[in-house]
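help with this record:
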Amino acid sequence: MKRNFSISRKENDLRNAVPTPMSQTSEGGKGHGESIGKGNRRDHEASSKERRRDQAVSSSTDNRIIRTSNKGKGSGKNQNAGNIRIKRHSSSYQLKLKAGLVLSAALLLLALIACFRTPYSPTEMNSSLIMQSPSLAHWMGTDNMGRDVFSRVLAGSGITFLVAAITVLASLTAGVILGFISGYFGGMADGIIMRICDVMLSFPSMLLALIVISIMGKGTENIVAALSILFVPSFVRIARSEMIRLKNLDFVLGERALGVKTWKIIFAHILPNALPSLLTSVVIGFNNAVLAEAGMSYLGLGVQPPTSSLGRMISEAQDFLFTAPWYAMGAGLWIILMILGFSLMAEGLKDMEE
């Protein structure tokens, strides 16, 4: 009996210790429900985080696209502005160059025509026409000797053009040769040539011209020689600088390596590349030559009467500025137009070179 009771007692303990299937199901259902609820909450939180992340990424991408588009618009505006500036610059120098060419060509054509024919004789005097004001018969009036001012201006402009052209051509030839020798060979030749140019440039140009003319004497030929000597140093410097810039370039070194003669390298290969700078200097030099010739003639050291000269006409008209202002205005206006035409050409060529 005791034995049976102990066995039944153990069975009861075991039965109580081991849960029944029903209890297992209920307890498992509760745990499973709790785990499912927690999983759903985690999934919901994860999905919401992913949505927020996607929204942030999309907004940042949109902002980047907007900034990129704005930058593109800004760069496009800057590019358009740059193109507009380039077009304005090119149109401005083309306008200057064309205006200078037209004005200078018109004055040169009139001067050439005056070499063969003028409305009246530039040297014929007429006492009945002294100091007449401008009219249809005499466009610029007459002077103190009854000569037609317009005819004298046309003849004088031809002399001025001729003196300036010969002066620039002579000084350009000498300056280019000396400048190329100085820049290509260097050494002692460079030192001697440049020191002489420095000495000449140390004097005021008008003073140096007066010294040369006082030595050589008055007259058209002497003024041409004096101005030619006076303008040589400026062309020497320009030609020398161009030679120094070009002589070490590849195409020149290649010609040297092939054994091409020096004079051919200088005049066939280097000179054409130096022409743009020299052309601008020629136009500026022509302006200076016109002013120098007019100044020398004004002082009575240039072209001598009865040959017409614009500077000489202004010198003769200064005593009649208040009684007959047209006398001086004709020659002065012609000099201004000549200087203006070649100055516009020089500015246009300089802008085109830049």
